[in-house]
Amino acid sequence: MIRFENVGLRYGVGPEVLRDVSFHIPPRSFQFLTGPSGAGKTSLIRLMFLSLKPTRGFMSAFGKDVSRLSATDLPALRRRIGVVFQDFRLLDHLTTFENVALPLRVAGKEEADYRTDVIELLRWVGLGRRMHAYPPILSGGEKQRAAIARALITQPELLLADEPTGNVDPPLARRLLRLFLELNRLGTSVVIATHDIGLMDQVDARRLILVDGHLEVSE
Amino acid sequence: MIRVRRRKTDANDPFAAEDHRDTDSGSEVGFGGSGPSPIVPSRSVAGRALVVVVAIMTFLSCLTVGLVMLVTTAAGDWQADIAREITIQIRPIEGQDMMPRLEAAVRIAEGQPGVRSARALSEADNNALLEPWLGSGLSLDALPVPRLVVVTLGDAESLDVERLRTALKADVPGASLDDHAMWTSQLATVARSVIASGMTIVVLMLTALVLTIVFATRAAIASNAQVIEVLHFVGAENGFVAREFQKHFLLKGLIGGLIGGGAALLAFLAIEVAAGSARSSTVVTQAQALLGPLSIGLPGYLVAVAIIFAVAILTAVASRVAVHRHLSGLDQR
User: Fold this and answer.
1) Does B234 sit within 8 Å of A79, measured CB to CB?
2) Measuring CA to CA, which residue among B4, B7, B32, B40 is closest to residue B21?
3) What is the 3-state secondary structure (H, E, C) of B37-55?
4) What number of other Cβ atoms are within 10 A of residue A169's Cβ?
5) ipTM of this complex prediction, to 2 decimal places
6) CA-to-CA distance for A147 and A170, rounded, in angstroms?
7) In B, which residues are within 8 Å of A116 by CB distance?
8) A19, A214 in Cβ contact below 8 A?
9) In chain A, what residues touch B41 (CB-CB under 8 Å)?
10) Do B252 and B316 contact (CB within 8 A), yes or no?
11) 8 A C-beta contact, residue A138 and residue A100
């Protein structure tokens, strides 16, 4: 699904933040991406959702060589990937419903065609009563679930979550983890970037460990 | 592939208990009757400032175009008036009678193609012309004052001025022809200068407007960087993002253009109405004597309306180009 072979990344003329990174995300897999702060987790996530291109090495996404992709190829590939950020990145001037429906709206779909799906997904993540609420009045947990719902609405093949439990209390973190496991059970590959060892210990899953830009895989 | 719909009855729903299944009714959910919220937030201080700038620029552009049209029309009228007449001047010559020479000049002039009539000014007419300079009650009989023949043209194009000049020179001693070429040429130069200056001002204002829009778009991009980033990672194509910004700025441009252009149209109307109701005023009379009727006419109004829409379209296109450039930069990272 996503394959890295000896990938390196640097910003501008700075030092390499990722060095010789090699791994593979298989379909229907579940893995944690972990490592100390500043190890390059967010950079690796950004590479995976095609926001950055590697400065060296080989990377493929859904069987396509990323270095050969043109700007017009990117939107279609990004729609196959759901992303959840630690800071949610919800649009404050749109309601929860509109935020979650955004990926469908940008894909040119009509509201009548997706209204039911969005409502059911919002109910599933426990936001059935907050559909008309704007993000500034949602709690941290509600915002996180809205961000997750937005990432899931297009039924992506891969879900990338960057510190999804960083802003929530431990009980909610456990519930969010159950949500990700449930998604994985339904067929979505999941990558959760976290440095919360307690969270990782709750699940027997593969760990991609980044230290100083190098990646080790712990099966 | 996951199936969201199936989860409705899934006992494993992690947040099912919290949700209680008592959601808003489906018919009330969604964008509601007013349609979806704009993806680019429509209300901002920068947006209001842009509307004001566009309104001012449109107002000034419309006023400039209106004044240029007024002067152009007036200059055209002056030129037409002057070109309809030419003058033959006959100097007194010692030992030669004036009257036969005047009659000869009139006859020669009337014999030319394109001449409607020729009339020798009487001594009284001559004296009246000189009165402003020499004062009244003065006897001019003793002075060698030239006499004039006014030639009115029917079709100025078919008159051969040089042929008339040669004929006069041959048959009427002391005659010279003034076809006002210098005046018409100066008026044409003045009219062209006014048009060129006005158009330069309009072009400069529209250029300033485009630059203002580009800066406003960049400011909007900067303040909506998160919106653009979110749209990008949910899979929006560049064209979609550019269209959203273009819609936003087209609306701002249209509102600004309508306010500024509307104010200019009202100003033109007010000038017309004021000129109509104050015909006896000296200022209005003098202005009308100089510029003709103080109205920009239908073409002027049409041009003002065209400027309003041109400004709105310019605003939209400038913003689209600026957004496209920004997005291309994002994809090349």
Assistant:
1) yes
2) B7
3) CCCCCCCCHHHHHHHHHHH
4) 10
5) 0.84
6) 18
7) 5, 26
8) yes
9) 93
10) no
11) no
B115: which DSSP letter? E
Instruction: Determine whether B198 is exposed, middle or buried from the number of CB atoms within 10 Å of its CB (0-12, 13-18, 19+).
Output: buried
Euclidean distance between CA atoms B234 and A76, whole angstroms: 10
Q: Is A4 helix (H, G, I), strand (E, B) or coil?
A: strand
Report pLDDT digits (tens) over B73-111: 777 777 777 778 888 998 888 888 888 888 999 999 888
Q: Alpha-carbon distance A28 to B10, whole Å? A: 20
Give the whole-angstrom CA distance, residue A154 versus residue A136. Answer: 24
Query: Model pTM?
Result: 0.67
Question: Phi, psi at residue B2, to the nearest 5°?
Answer: -80, 160
Cβ distance of A98 and B41 shorter than 8 Å: no
Q: Which of A181, A186, A189 to mutate to test the interface with B (most CBs of B within 10 A)?
A: A186
List of residues 6+ apart from B76 with CB closer than 8 A: B191
CB contact under 8 A, A75 and B237: yes
pLDDT tens digits along B251-303: 888 999 999 999 998 988 888 787 767 666 666 666 666 666 666 778 888 88
